[in-house]
Design brief:
By secondary structure, this protein is an alpha+beta fold. The protein contains four helices and four strands; from the N terminus they run αααββββα. It starts with a helix and ends in a 42-residue tail after the last helix.
Length: 128
């Protein structure tokens, strides 16, 4: 809601695409997904722009590790800083800008995995 309130032009583009592809007599379904590239980009941008779980869920490393010179003992609680990853200016130029178009075209933004977790405990619905 906040993204649409702050970006009415994005809302108009998304509504135009839905009206053109789906019409106003039914809800979009998974069969429409390929025909709704702007909506797909919009969903990706929402999950990147304001991640639902900015630090994700705690994980525990099974074996000791060293990451960038820091020793992490086995059994430590480890959090992925999803908020920071989603704002990486190298991957997502102008990261605070809400711009679904970054996911479209010949050179789209790299996939952002953080919204669905990491490792063996990823969200099983991530493919939907």
């Amino acid at each position: 809601l906040v993204a649409m309130l702050l970006n009415p032009e994005v809302l108009r583009k998304a509504q135009e695409e839905i009206d053109r592809v789906v019409g106003r007599t039914r809800q979009p379904d998974f069969g429409d997904m390929e025909s709704l590239p702007y909506m797909d980009a919009l969903c990706k941008e929402i999950l990147r722009w304001r991640p639902i779980g900015p630090l994700g869920v705690a994980h525990s490393n099974i074996v000791e590790d060293v990451y960038e010179g820091m020793y992490i003992p086995a059994g430590s609680k480890v959090y992925a800083n999803i908020e920071l990853m989603s704002k990486d200016p190298m991957a997502y130029p102008n990261p605070e800008e809400f711009r679904p178009e970054r996911w479209l075209g010949p050179d789209p933004a790299p996939a952002f995995p953080g919204a669905f977790g990491f490792g063996r405990r990823q969200c099983p619905g991530k493919h939907i």
